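cron nightly-structures :: item 1 of 1
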Amino acid sequence: MVFGAFERMVAMRYLRARRQEGFVSVIAGFSLVGIALGVATLIIVMSVMNGFRQELLGRILGVNGHLAVYGVEGPFPDYQDVVTRLRAIPGVRTVSPQVQGQVLVTAAGAASGALVRGVEPADLLARGEIAGNIVAGSLDTFGGEDDAVIAIGSRLAQRLSIAVGDPLTVVSPQGTTTVMGTLPRMKAYRVIALFQVGMYEYDNTFAYMPMSAAQTFFRLPKRVNGIEVFVDDPENVGQVRGHIASTLGPGFRSLDWEQSNASFFNAIQVERNVMFLILSLIILVAAFNIIAGLIMLVKDKGRDIAILRTMGATRGMILRIFFMSGASIGVVGTIAGFALGLLFAENIESIRQVLQGLTGTELFSAEIYFLSRLPAEVDPVEVTQVVAMALFLSFLAPLFPAWRAARLDPVEALRYE
């Protein structure tokens, strides 16, 4: 072994507090706690940032699709031919034509803006983020004989105080021109289902109606104003986008999820990097505490070092003794922080619920953070990097104090004893 039994015994004995050396042990304790908290905080924050990004990405791509195709001159009538050509492109999983428009919805004296999407019933049922998160009602009658039906988000239903079976009036911003002026175009639809995606923006804004009803309401007979495309690998959507541009020609334009959400995800990445840098300073400060505590320990143990040297201890033995004394603080702190960080990250939503119950305040508002729960996803690579950085600083910090201890001259140390 690199460290002998005698070296391990002396190193561990120096770390145990005695009355005249209590302050040194206090500094060592604070160093251990600092490294543990730094490692745990880094793991927790990085896990929450990863979970936040993955949850947002999953919900955004599950509702909006990976790529959208629009006509340069507006809605296009021959969309079935376009859909057929898109489905033949390698890497394309599903294609969903739609009619989309901003509207005003009213019910029971309340009003709110909404985004209405007209889709084929089969496409909506195949979209797991919507069809798999129905909290009230059913999509069984969606697109049946009665197409005057609509499915809306649960938070939108709460704001309008409506439930399944209630009528909902949809008002188009494009009115009908008559001799009396421009009159608003409106139609009443029956609410058949409420969905809850878990992302506040979608649950509070989105509404779905059958394609035929949307084409009639927005005056787009046998036409659509957009086609959503889902690909096999969302991370390589740019390659599929190039194939789509070459296949469809200049009369169409496409917009993938990276382009439409670039500023949002770039902001998350910048915040993530800054948080990593700031929280790493906690570990660095704890490493400096190890250096300070070990220098004080070397000064207090000057006579002991001299006696050990006169008894035959080599400079290498003295260096290893004090190196072990400092490094063991960092290693134990890193292991404790690693365990604490993983435990906290795995149970962070339960911890949030407990803290909310104790404080009586909402700690993770869906209106601000877009999600209804606090996500966390532990990345093994990032955890390994955090632990490796903490161990590196833990091994680097005691080198200088241990080198000074090994260079101590026994004659000088015992001259005034």
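cron nightly-structures :: done
Strands lie at 67-71, 92-107, 110-119, 134-137, 149-153, 167-178, 181-195, 206-210, 226-231, 252-256.
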